[in-house]
Design brief:
The complex is a heterotetramer of chains A (about 750), B (about 80), C (about 290) and D (about 160). With about 750 residues, chain A is α+β, with helices and mostly antiparallel strands. In chain A, about 30% of the residues lie in helices and about 25% in strands. Chain A has a 7-stranded mixed sheet with strand order 3-5-1-12-9-10-11, with helices on both faces. In chain A, strands 7-15-14-13-8 form a 5-stranded mixed sheet. Chain A has a 4-stranded mixed sheet with strand order 16-24-25-26, sandwiched between helices. In chain A, helix 15 packs parallel to helix 16 (about 520-545). The termini of chain A are far apart. In chain A, about 65% of the residues are buried. Residues about 1-5 of chain A have low confidence and may be disordered. With about 290 residues, chain C is α+β, with helices and mostly antiparallel strands. Chain C has 2 domains: about 50-165, Uridine Diphospho-n-acetylenolpyruvylglucosamine Reductase, domain 3; about 175-280, 2-Layer Sandwich (Enolase-like, domain 1), CATH 3.30.390. A 5-stranded antiparallel sheet of chain C has the order 4-5-10-6-7. A 4-stranded antiparallel sheet of chain C has the order 11-12-13-14, with helices on both faces. The longest helix of chain C is centred in the C-terminal third of the chain and has 23 residues, at about 260-280. Classes of the chains: A alpha+beta (about 750), B alpha+beta (about 80), C alpha+beta (about 290), D alpha+beta (about 160).
């Protein structure tokens, strides 16, 4: 695999500029077609019936009255799917409940009807006989041996005795000797931190349009972060061959990890199969909140020791994440990332993956890491302040750098944490004066970043323009980045390249748009595809000139003789070579397929000023600055956008967002009215500082940037609020009632 | 022989060792070697793991070369958002 | 469901009286949410916006009559209304987003009968009345007498509110409304407080009305709070007493929006802050 | 149940449609008229993605019945550009990367245009409060607010 081709420091012509995105006009005129924006002839409307109980055995479902309603064309329950392969069993059970409904909002049946009104009516005619069971939604309660059990007999061998069967697995990471380290400390902070469950909160609800014919061929249009994943998962569930199912990704109205799994798609396909007509399904906002992936809520014990000069002698954390109704919370990611920013001799994390009667957690931007960082960075802040040490200096003193053995095992190559801390220290924000009831917080964050299976095909048209086909939905400007990298590599102007997102029939397997992988991995494949096309074009020029193809090089968008021995020939531009492609062997293309492993990790440091109203506990964000290593910022405006968006999602998580369950296990706030994501008037501008410490694993040095920005904010804001309020905040969200109670408790105590 | 570091909770299945030695020149040989020497690791290997080789993370590329000097660390399978 | 848009009050009354499950549509910002969530399934929706006068603000007896379909945005653009009852206008202006402001009405906010309705404490403090039309004719009642319990009003079947009347602004009077929400916009009040007061030339309170929202099953007029400041200058001690009276009067529940302790405490905090704004306005200063 | 016949103007074009009494204006625009530029993010007036103007007033089309559009003048995102000329806000949003996924963009543009028509020189705070009912989850609003302020400044200079 050709990953070790990192070019020496180079100057870029296109990369690093801020051209208009290719899909810009579609998106500002309303022409862009998102998940719900498509129709098909004869289309039916699909709707889902959802459990009103947090935990119930489904004794019987009687759909006969619904089927008899005029206009109803198909009704589906879990029974229609039959047995499915083991690796998708939980997936289909989450899309359509089997023996038990495991959370409020769990799908139990679906209909396809001639109109939305008929579909609505049909749902009411479905009789479900539920045997209501005791439920549990809190992570600590779910771990107790006497907690109601969701799944019996599925516990991994890694879980010790004494826990409920809801504890699905246990992981442990670290090195050194915690007790020895703690003994060396001048002070030890030991606290429990809790975070509420938050939702990714994309503005576009899940939507799809499925068409399946009696010949077994199917077409699916949907908003997803990965249409290849949708294809593979749906094919497995429906017992189809992957090649028979063509999935086209619509424009996607946000995902943040929440659209890396299927919810409606297999159901729509089954409805279409049974009805023999296209079926469109669109979730309502309340369905999105009740039944699609939120994050884990967590409970984390931290114990950190520090010497009075600020050296961390030991770090321990026990992390308990509930991942909703099925195993697979990101507690392993949290456990691996918790102490990743620090060079520690003694470090240990233990993680428990717990199931509860809540919707199955889906990935959310650096899944698992923000909560762990919240706990660890809060404790470090408390220690630093206790010794009256500068919190940035303390972090610098302990910062991981090249050669540090990471808390999760490997030795770091060149990384950018110190650079972000130094930039933070030098920034005017750090020394700006603060007023009464105001506080400043800082925190660091880490994310792994991924690569994965990736295909890119680059075609040269007869008139010398270039089209790039990639297989990853463009969630925030990636078409622009790919276009830029192709133009850069080919040495042609940006506007001579057009990038499209191809459907599953057009390219090979592509990993989901996740793990901050796209600019890294698809970018790498785009560059390599361009290099292959260049090689071909050099060959064509060599044919024309009658010289060896090795004697031709590609410079500034044209083939040239590589040296004096190659003879004197005028350069042939891409356009000139394209024009004679038919005469020199046929169309010119470059393609590249790779499992792009070796992504570079990423670090960031956030700084925030807040003001807390001591009479109401309300927090106002006054100033916010993000410092992050981007490796190489391909389109800096969209890099800044990732930093800003991640920070603001973090602000929501820190201050107001949370899933609120009643005693009855029913979600109380399934709407944007009471699931309170930040609005424009809540916020200041979000300043950004992009650091560029090249990733040796990418030809241009690119690192993923999308996820890291959500890791530090929870702790940075908690540290700022704690300073402003004069009391250490350990539970998120720091909603006004919680902050006011803490302030009053402090006064009382 | 390649030295392989395993994470804490896997040590239970490697006779308490957090570092084991496996004869391997590629990732595939490494995984096969681990499963052969330490059958207790098999459930975890089947669930999927990531491997850091000299600080870079690999998931599936069997023929990624590993040298005796390589730093090899088993990781939980990484997933992103 | 049937939709009708009658041109006269009489036609509207006939339609409403003639159908079970009939609902009035003015701004629709609550009604459509309930339709959408299937909380309501009306047989008939009567759109009153095409009835003459429903979209008008007219001077009357030194005060202002506000048609039932006048939106918050329209109120905010009416200079006379803003000058006389800034608290009521601001309260109406707090309901929802700019988009919601383009439609939401005082009458609708009142008839939705939510204890957390923003404009209602402000109207109660201003001693506003409503004109109700119905099969039995026309009657005027105080705003405070409209809500009965959460989601229920005292209006009889077939009746609807045709207009809201804000009385003449007292000389040296001022009003204010404040609410607490977790964000800066788009939330439902966790606590709301309306204050309307009149000061004498020495700055002492000669009359006051203090109301609270979201701390009981319906908006309440807190007479003890008004008494606490009556005859006094609004110094720290008077404001403390006002706050204490409001906290004592609050009988909130704990829900997804706030705790009992929080609501009690913040009721006092808001009363104090709102009284200071109202007093500033009473002195003819801008606040 | 018979459908309601509505005569209205949409983006200046005389338009007639039939709808059910319970259809919202958003349902009509998207499902009956094929104008899918207005988006449904919540259906409850909390996200602003369906923003349109009716007789010049900014509203959520999900909070208005289609039948209420009788005789009104509705403008949507589809009417924002003039021929092949983008509105200055549309141009600025592209230039300043004021969108990421783009789902909230139509509603924000319609709302911002309505603001600038009413207030050509808004402060940052005024822009933020005017747009508080338009949720964006990608951008953190920074570039959106800057783009609106910048467009306002351009328009003031041009006039």
């Amino acid at each position: 695999m050709a990953l070790d081709h990192s070019d020496k420091p180079r100057t870029f012509k296109v990369v690093g500029t801020r051209p208009p995105r290719p899909d810009g006009i579609d998106k500002v005129t309303g022409r862009a077609r998102f998940g719900a924006d498509i129709v098909a002839p004869g289309m039916l409307t699909g709707r889902v019936l959802r459990s009103p109980h947090a935990h119930a055995r489904i004794v019987k479902i009687d759909t006969s009255k619904a089927r008899a309603l005029p206009g109803v064309k198909a009704v589906v329950t879990r029974a229609d799917f039959g047995a499915v392969p083991e690796d998708v069993a939980d997936v289909i059970d989450n899309c359509m409940a089997g023996d038990k409904a495991l959370y409020d909002g769990h799908a139990v049946a679906a209909v396809a009807a001639s109109s939305a009104a008929v579909a609505r009516k049909a749902l009411r005619l479905i009789d479900v006989d539920y045997e209501v069971l005791p439920h549990v939604t809190d992570v600590d309660a779910a771990m107790k041996p006497d907690a109601p059990v969701l799944h019996a007999g599925r516990q991994e061998e890694t879980v010790p005795e004494g826990y409920s069967q809801n504890v699905m697995s246990r992981v442990e990471f670290g090195h050194g000797d915690i007790d020895k380290g703690l003994a060396e400390a001048d002070r030890v902070v030991e606290r429990t931190y809790r975070t509420g469950a938050t939702h990714q909160g994309y503005i576009e609800p899940h939507a799809c349009l499925a068409t399946m014919g009696p010949d077994g061929q199917a077409d699916l249009w949907c908003c997803t972060q990965g249409h290849y994943m949708v294809r593979n998962t749906c094919a497995a569930i429906l017992g189809m061959e992957q090649g028979q199912l063509r999935v086209t990704a619509s424009e996607i109205g946000g995902g943040f990890g929440g659209k890396t799994v299927v919810f409606l798609e297999p159901v729509a396909l089954m409805l279409s199969k049974l009805a023999g007509r296209p079926v469109k399904m669109v979730m309502s906002r309340s369905e999105v909140l009740r039944a699609t992936g939120p994050t884990s809520s967590t409970s984390i014990d931290v114990k950190i020791g520090m010497t009075k000069d600020g050296r961390i002698t030991a770090g321990f954390a026990q992390l308990r994440y509930q991942g909703g109704a099925y195993p697979g919370s990101p507690v392993d990611m949290g456990s691996m990332s918790a102490f990743a920013p620090y060079d520690l001799e003694n470090v240990k994390t233990v993680g428990f993956d717990v199931v509860t009667n809540r919707p199955k957690a889906a990935a959310y931007r650096a899944p698992g890491a923000p909560m762990a960082a919240f706990a660890v960075e809060s404790a470090i802040d408390e220690l630093a302040k206790g010794f009256d040490l500068d919190p940035l200096e303390v972090r610098l003193k302990n910062a991981a750098r090249e050669g540090t053995v990471a808390s999760y095992g490997p030795t770091f190559p060149a990384i950018g944490l110190e650079a972000t801390l130094e930039a933070a220290k030098a920034h005017p924000h750090w020394t700006a004066p603060l007023g009464e009831n105001q506080g400043r917080g800082v925190a660091c964050g880490f994310w792994f970043n991924f690569g994965g299976d990736t295909c890119v095909t680059l075609n040269v048209t007869p008139d010398g323009t270039v089209t790039v086909s990639e297989g990853n939905p463009d969630i925030g400007g990636s078409r622009a980045s790919m276009t830029m990298m192709a133009a850069e590599e080919l040495g042609i102007p940006y506007d001579r390249v057009r990038t499209i997102i191809a459907d599953t029939g057009a390219l090979g397997q592509n990993e989901v748009t996740d793990g901050s992988r796209v600019t890294f991995a698809v970018g790498l494949a785009t560059i390599e595809a361009a290099r292959n096309a260049k090689r071909e074009m050099c060959k064509r020029a060599a044919m024309i000139w009658g010289i060896d193809e090795e004697a031709v090089e590609w410079v500034d968008g044209a083939a040239r003789p590589a040296g004096p021995n190659a003879g004197k020939h005028d350069p042939m531009t891409l356009k000139e070579i394209a024009a004679i492609a038919s005469n020199t062997g046929g169309p010119i293309a470059g393609h590249y397929e790779v499992n792009a492993e070796g992504a570079g990790v990423s670090f960031g440091t956030h700084m925030v000023d807040v003001e807390v109203d001591p009479d109401t506990g309300a927090t106002k964000i006054l100033r916010y600055t993000v410092f992050q290593d981007a490796g190489k910022a391909v389109h800096p405006a969209y890099v800044e956008g990732q930093f800003q968006g991640g920070a603001v999602q973090g602000i929501g998580w820190a201050l107001n967002e949370e899933y609120i369950y009643g005693e009855d296990g029913i979600l109380q706030n399934a709407g944007f009215l009471d699931y309170r994501i930040p609005v424009a008037s809540d916020l200041p501008m979000i300043d950004t500082v992009i650091l560029e410490i090249a990733n040796p694993g990418h030809p241009y040095g690119v690192r993923g940037v999308g996820e890291t920005p959500i890791v530090p904010p929870l702790a940075a804001i908690a540290n700022a609020v704690s300073e402003a309020a004069g009391v250490r905040m350990t539970d998120l969200p720091m909603s006004p009632p919680r902050v006011l109670a803490a302030i009053q408790g402090q006064k009382g105590g | 022989m390649v030295k392989v570091r395993v994470w804490g909770s896997l040590a239970e299945f490697t006779e308490g060792q957090t570092e084991v030695e496996i004869k391997a020149t590629t990732l595939r040989e490494l995984l096969d070697g681990l499963a052969g020497e330490y059958p207790g690791l098999r459930p975890q290997l089947e669930r999927g793991i990531s491997v850091a080789i000299d600080g870079r993370v690999y998931n599936d590329s069997w023929f990624t070369p590993i040298s005796e000097e390589s730093e090899v660390v088993l990781l939980r399978r990484l997933k992103g958002g | 469901m049937r939709y009708e848009a009658p041109q006269s009050v009489e036609a509207a009354v006939d339609l409403l009286a003639g159908a079970e499950g009939a609902f009035v549509l003015a701004g629709g910002t609550d009604l459509l949410v309930k339709l959408r969530s299937e909380m309501l399934e009306p047989d008939l929706v009567v759109d009153i916006k095409r009835i003459a006068g429903m979209k008008e603000i007219t001077p009357e007896d030194g005060g202002w009559r506000i048609g039932a379909a006048v939106s918050g945005a329209e109120m905010g653009e009416h200079a006379g209304l803003v000058a006389d009852w800034p608290g009521v206008v601001e309260a109406a202006g707090l309901i929802g987003s700019t988009q919601v402001q383009g439609r939401a009405t005082l009458a609708g906010n009142l008839c939705n009968a939510s204890p957390a309705a923003d404009s209602v404490p402000a109207m109660v403090a201003a001693n506003a009345t409503v004109r109700i039309v119905g099969p039995q004719g026309t009657r005027d009642i105080a705003v405070i007498d409209v809500p009965e319990s959460p989601g229920k009003t005292t209006l009889a079947p077939g009746e609807f509110i045709a207009s809201v009347f804000l009385p003449a602004k007292p000389k040296q009077g001022g009003d204010a409304y404040l609410r607490f929400i977790p964000r800066t916009e788009m939330d439902i009040a966790v606590v709301g407080c309306g204050v309307s007061l009149v000061l004498d030339s020495a700055g002492k309170v000669t009359s006051a009305r203090v109301s609270l929202g979201a701390v009981g099953p319906k908006v309440m007029l807190v007479e003890a709070a008004a008494e606490a400041i009556l005859g006094r200058a609004l110094d720290d001690s008077a404001l403390e007493d006002l706050a204490a009276a409001c906290s004592a009067a609050a009988s909130p529940i704990e829900d997804k929006r706030g705790t009992v302790d929080f609501r009690r405490h913040v009721a006092g905090v808001l009363a104090r802050r709102a009284a200071e704004i109202a007093a500033t306005r009473a002195k003819g200063e801008t606040a | 149940m018979s459908q309601i016949h509505v005569t209205t103007s949409i983006n200046g074009d005389a338009t007639e449609f039939l709808c059910e009494a319970e259809d919202t204006l958003l349902d009509v625009l998207r499902d009956r008229l094929g104008m899918t530029g207005s988006k449904e993010g919540c259906g409850t007036g909390d996200c602003g993605a369906c923003s349109v103007t009716v007789d010049g007033r900014l509203v959520c089309s999900c909070l208005m019945l289609g039948a209420e559009a009788e005789g009104r003048e509705v403008t949507t995102i589809e009417g924002m550009a003039t021929g092949d000329r983008l509105h200055p806000l549309q141009e600025k949003f592209i230039e300043m990367a004021a969108l990421q996924c783009g789902i909230c963009t139509p509603g924000i543009l319609v709302a911002a245009k309505s603001l600038l028509e009413k207030n050509p020189d808004p402060s940052e705070e005024e822009v933020r409060y005017w747009l508080a009912g338009n949720l964006c989850r990608c951008t953190g609003y920074d570039k959106i607010i800057r783009a609106v302020m910048d467009t306002a400044a351009d328009l003031r200079r041009a006039s």
